[in-house]
């Protein structure tokens, strides 16, 4: 009985900590006013830089989400201590949200 309670608690913690797919990370609001003094060329360069970083973080976030999903399957079926390998969302998701917001702000400024 106690083992079932431990497994249920570990599952609840793991489910709440699973990493989201990058497409599910919402953009944070970034004011386009910070780009109002930029020239068209500067906006294009900044948009290129932000876009490249978003692409990089998207790959990392999707990889973490896939890894967390696999750990959930393994832990649920075979080995419950695998729940401790679920990393969840962290500063990567926060940075991705911020950069998505910056990209939207750049589009508005353009």
Description of the molecule:
The chain has 110 residues and is an all-alpha fold. Helices cover 66% and strands 0% of the residues. It has 3 helices and no strands. The longest helix is centred in the middle third of the chain and has 38 residues, at 40-77. Mean pLDDT is 76; it is low at 4-16.
Provide a brief overview of the structure.
The chain has 110 residues and is mainly α.
Shape estimate:
elongated
The sequence of SSEs as H and E is HHH
Number of helices: 3
Mean pLDDT across all amino acids: 76
What distance separates the N and C termini?
61 Å
Provide the helix percentage: 55-70%
Taking Cα atoms only, what radius of gyration do you get, to the nearest Å?
Answer: 19 Å
Number of DSSP strand runs: 0
Unreliable runs, pLDDT <50, ≥5 residues? 4-16
Strand content: under 5%
Secondary structure class reads mainly alpha
Instruction: Please outline the major beta sheet.
Output: none
Topology readout:
Elements: H1 2-17, H2 40-77, H3 91-109
Helix pairs in contact: 2-3
Can you give keywords for this protein?
110 residues, mainly alpha
